[in-house]
Amino acid sequence: MAIDRVITSESKNEAEENFNVSLRPKQLRECIGQQKVIDKLKIAIEAAKKRNEPLEHILFYGPPGLGKTTLANVVANEMGANIRCTSGPALTKQGDLMGLLSNINTGDTLFIDEIHRLSTPVEEFMYPAMEEFRVDFTVDSGLHAKTINFPLKRFTLIGATTRAGLLSAPMRSRFGMLYHLEFYNTADLTLILKRSAKLLQLNCDEGTLNLIATRSRGTPRIANRLLKRVRDYAQVKGQGELTTAIVESSLKMEQIDGLGLDELDRSFLRALAGVYEGGPAGIEAIAATLGEERDTLEDVVEPYLLQLGFVRRTNRGREITKQACEHLGLKYSKKPTADDGPELFDSGQP
Ligand code: ADP
Predict the structure, then answer these.
(1) pTM of the model
(2) Which residue ranges form the domains of the chain, and what is each CATH number?
(3) Which end of the chain is more exposed for a tag (fewer CB within 10 A), N or C?
C-alpha cells in the first residue's frame, strides 16, 4: 500500500496550488537562494532586453519542489512576456503542440514541465520549432502526403525536468542555457518561510521558522507545506501562534523526524537494511517491496537520501550507509566487496 505523505512530487491539488501560487515569487529579486542560477539569469535577461531579442531556450533540472516552475514564470515576467504552460504527458500528439505554437507571439514563453516525458514524435516535431522557428506538418497520408512548413514567431521554450538524464541528447543540445537547481540550505529556507509567514500573516519568530526549515529536506515546496500544516495545528491545538512546542508536536504527528525524513523515507531505508541486508538492491525490487512507483522513489525519495549520504548508488544497486543505520538505530554490517581486498573474503583455506 502506498504511504500517504506530505512530501510528494505529485501535482498539487487545487487548494495547495492556490496556497503555492500566492507564495510564488514573481520577480528575480524576490527569489531566495539558487544564487548562481539567479545571477546567470539576470545577465541573460538584461542582455536579451538590450538586444531587444527573445531569450534563448532554457532547461531547469533538479528534484521536485525546488522552484523550476517558479523560475519559468519569473523569467517570463522579467522579460515582460506571456507564458503558456503545459507538460510532457499532456502533449500526446503533434497537433497538441501545433495548437500551442501557432498561437504564440514573438518573445512569448512556452513552459513544458516534465519535458523528459514528451513522446518521440512530439519531441521530434519540437526540434525545428526550437532551432529554426518553424514546424514541418504532414497532411494526408500515402501518395497524397505532403509536408507543409509553417513559420513560427520567435519564442522562448523553458523546459523543466527532474531527470535530465532521461532527456535525449538532441533535445538537450537545443537548449542555450541549462541550469541545475540544488537543495536549499537552512538559512535560505528560513528566509523563504519568513516571506511566506508574512504573506499568510502568521504570528511566529525566526527560531520557529528555522526549526521548520531544518525539517524541510532542502525544498521550498515542503517548507511551505509544513508551514501550512503547522498553521492548522496551531489554530486547533494552540492559540494560533507558531511556537517551538507547536511545531515539534505537529511535525511529530506528520511523522517527520529530526532530519525531515518521513515514513516513506524510513521504509525505504528499513527495506534496504532489512529485506536486502544493506544492499546492493535494484530500485525496481525496492519499489516492489514498498508497493511504490519506481519514479516516486527515484524523483522524491532518493535525491535527499543521497544528499544526506544515507544511500549509495553503485553499479549493482542501492546500498545503505553507516550514517543511515545510526539514524534509524539499526545495526550496520557491511558486506565485503571485491573493492575491500582479498583479506575480507573467506578463501576456503584453513
Ligand atoms: P518545481 O517546479 O521545481 O517542482 P515550484 O516552482 O513549483 O517547484 O516551487 C514550489 C514552491 O516553492 C513554489 O510555489 C514557491 O512557493 C516556492 N519557491 C520555489 N522557489 C522559491 C524561491 N527561490 N524563493 C521563494 N519561494 C520559492
Answers:
(1) 0.88
(2) 15-180 (3.40.50.300), 186-253 (1.10.8.60), 263-328 (1.10.10.10)
(3) C
